[in-house]
Write a structure and sequence with these properties.
The protein has 174 residues and is mainly alpha-helical. The protein has 6 helices and 2 strands; from the N terminus they run ααααββαα.
């Protein structure tokens, strides 16, 4: 039975609007902080370091899929970071033909410096907020973190079921 209540519809529209506005503001804030911060690495490399740090050891094809780029593009990015000593590659113990990319201690330090520089770029503006506005933002941080964790869990389970069904159908074909 489908619920067609006006309240549900209004909440869905409001949620869509809030989501779109939130993503727009966060993207602009992210760009602003990146443009203002004094960071030694190109932002794409900082973003890749953050991705590898969040995911842990990952295959290049997984990183390429998550970053929505080609595997050769990701290989080149990883090589740049590896040359700089910010990531390392080791043979995947589950498949000797593949490698796993991990952040090195130097990579984690560089990532922390980039995050500090970006936070410092935003800090002067946060200090101009009224105390209640600052409190609202501070309260929103764990909510946004939970939202992201829920979305990541949902996305991971969806991609796992998709890759499982793909590998199952592939193995049936051979």
């Amino acid at each position: 039975m489908t619920n067609h209540s006006p309240t549900l519809a209004a909440n869905t529209v409001a949620g869509d609007t809030v989501g779109a506005e939130l993503l727009s503001v966060v993207a602009r804030l992210n760009r602003f902080a990146t443009q203002q911060a004094a960071i030694d690495l190109p932002f794409a490399q900082v973003r890749l370091l953050a991705l590898v740090d969040e995911r842990g050891p990952s295959r290049i094809n997984e990183l390429a899929a998550l970053d929505r780029c080609t595997q050769p593009t990701m290989t080149a990015q990883v090589q740049r970071l590896e040359t700089a000593g910010l990531v390392s590659r080791v043979v995947d113990p589950s498949d000797a033909r593949a490698v796993l990319v991990s952040t090195t201690p130097a990579g984690r330090r560089q990532l922390a410096l980039a995050r500090e520089a970006r936070a410092a770029a935003v800090a002067p503006y946060l200090s101009t907020l009224e105390p209640h506005e600052h409190d609202v933002l501070a309260a929103a941080v764990p909510i946004l973190g939970r939202l992201l964790a829920d979305a990541s869990t949902s996305s991971t389970s969806n991609s796992t079921s998709t890759s499982t069904s793909t590998s199952t159908s592939t193995s049936k074909e051979h």
